[in-house]
Amino acid sequence: MGLRRFFDNASALLLAALVHILLLGVLLVSLDWRPRAVDAPTQVPVQAMVLDEGRVAEEIAALKQEELRERELERERLQSMEEAAEEAREQRLSEERRLVQVQDELSELQQEHEQTLRSRSREEEERLEELQREQQRQRERLDQLKRQEEDLAREREAALAKLELETSALEEQARLAEEEKTRIESELREAEERKQAAERERRRVEEQRRLAQAEEKRKAEERRRAEEEKQRLAEEKRRAEEERKRAEAEAREDEEARRAAEAQRAFESALAEEQEELALAQARLRDKLLAEYSLAIRAAVERNWIRPPGAPAHLACVVRVSQAPSGDVVTVQIIESSGNRAFDSSVENAVWKSSPLPLPKDVGLFRRDLQFVFDPEG
After folding, report:
1. Residue 101 belongs to a domain
2. 257 in a domain, yes or no?
3. Cβ(318)–Cβ(373) below 8 Å
4. Per the structure, how many domains does the chain have?
5. With 50 as the cut, is the pLDDT of residue 152 above it?
6. How far is CA 26 from CA 18, 84, 148, in A?
7. Distance CA 120, CA 114 (A)
8. What average pLDDT does this structure show over 244-261?
9. What was the pLDDT predicted at 40?
10. Residue 118: which domain range?
11. What is the pLDDT of residues 299-318, one digit of tens each?
12. Rounded Cα gap, residues 291 and 307, in angstroms
């Protein structure tokens, strides 16, 4: 069974490769390898007084550009054919290498078959015959691929020959166009010379007429300037009067603006003084309320404090208290001891007994964490 699977896979691989090569061959044959016809330049009757040298040059340049474009298209087609031929050649070489591999494997299998001929059944012999037939089919396919490759080579050579003929034809057309350009340029030069002679005569007549007109125009210009000078003096007088009125109006507006600015500055100054006094009053009131709040807490703690026996006088400590918004004491901590443990403990007890602590009159002065100095003699 392993031998049959191996040859089935090999046959499928070769068949797939053959199908791809056939498709490539069909694609190459279906391409249009015929050269495109190049229109010969149209012979236009030349009129010496109308022809434009720039237009002729543009047409010749367009013909050359079209020639280069056609050459580039043919070069690209040829390159495409060469690439297709190269791909077909590589495919054929790959098939040949694969055939050699299959032949080697077949040879090994034949040797094995000879060694085990007595123990093999009729089925193995039929498989060997099938392999031989498959080998023959592969040879036929390779022969077909070789013929296709030769056909592609002939087509490529024919295309090269055709490209050379078309290139020669285009070069001949370019030469004829260049000769036509030379002839047209000669006619243009002759027409230009006649045109220049006529232009010189026209300029001479035009100069005489221009001199006569210039004299008449000079006299009319003198009359016009005199009238303009008269109008200018009248306009300057009118503008001077308008400027005087405008200056008086601006002076009145400036005075009114100055008075309004002084009134605004006075108002802003008074307002700033009032705001400063209000801020000072608010600060004094806040300090007063804070002092009252602190005194109320200290008084509450002192009311609940009991001096420990034997505690010396003039002891003090710094207490930190955390409280809830209701004034209930949450934590009590001595952050700066008095040096007497009994005194510090009595202060802590007094704080706990004072819970809830007094609240400030202004809710905005409430502090969750308080710190104060407890000094009963202070």
Report:
1. yes
2. no
3. yes
4. 2
5. yes
6. 12, 11, 10
7. 10
8. 89
9. 47
10. 2-205
11. 999 999 999 998 888 899 99
12. 25
